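Hi everyone,

Forwarding the result from last night's run.
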Amino acid sequence: MVVNGFSMPKVVAYLGLACFAYGSLAVTAKSGHGQEAAETPVAAAPKATPKAAAPEVAKETAKETPETAKTVLPEVTFSQAEGASDADAASLEPVQTSIKTFAQAFNTHDVKAVSALFTTQAEITNQSGHVTRGRDAVQDIFAKLFTAHPAVSIRFEVQSLRFLSPELAIEEGVSIMSNGDDKAGLPPHHDRYTVTHTKVEDKWLVAAARDWPALPPNGAEQLQQLDWLVGEWVDENGDTLVHTAYHWSADKHYLLSEYSVQGPGRPAVQGTQRIGWDPRVQKLHSWTFDTAGGFNEGLWSRSGDQWIVKITGVAADGRSRSATNILTQLSQDHATYQSRDRVVGGEVLPDQHEVPIVRKPPQPTSRMKKTHDNPPSVPQPIRSPKKPS
């Protein structure tokens, strides 16, 4: 989409389940060869979006889960200048108030309130150097943006705010813009910007705003697209049961999981998975290791509610393996999984049918207390519903 010269970049993101990455024994060799697995691929990176230019907008899909309620971030944060006195802070407060008012007006899509914060001859310069002049033209930009993206929102990280004169201030920082469309699964845009504020009749208004080239993608925010996975999941594929638990690393730079695979006539297999952002290829990248001695890695690609994972790996006996796994999110607590194009040691295996995956519900408080007092020696897995024929 293009709004007055500001284009919406096409960004693809990538995800993966541990049991999904393992493929629910998706690439298990025939009897006598033991258990095997494969993992998945591809993702692209988002482009950033600066403050006043109301420019390129990306989409964000981190969803709140029962296990981890999402923290609501402030619309504007200010970096504390070293050595700044109380007098400096007091003199900057009116300008800070104007910045907060802009963010509030933007996030409530109040076009008139947004444009009222600009001078009559204000200028906005986007990353391409295109200049929009005048309050009326500025209002038209934001009106088009809010119409095209009803859920668009913005945050500002103000890194520098200083006076050039008693009536002129310079603001520099980073804007984080999201168009709020969960279906698209695109992370928010980060842009650097500079704003010149001028004092007009005791009011601080924007005289000029400039957006600078986008910042590199933020890996932690890319991973927020997988936030809905946090918790415990089970899937049942015939006689095989897979239990997976996801949680964030302490710094939230990785999504970690542990999984177990139980099937008839063979020992249970456990494994771990780590998903992170790969800055070299600008994609989400996952690594999986199982107790049988095999390992896989994958890149994740997304189309709406569906994730496609291209997996390559090595089995414990040294044979190569690969597969294409498909995960489709049906709701916050339900998904389906399928493994296709499975190859182990050069042998092509049949595609796996679609398997339902469900979130394991939390235990009732009373049961949790009883379990704490007298924990069972072996946890009983919750089996997912059978796929209707």
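Residues 1-72, 367-389 have pLDDT under 50 and may be disordered.

Cheers,
N.
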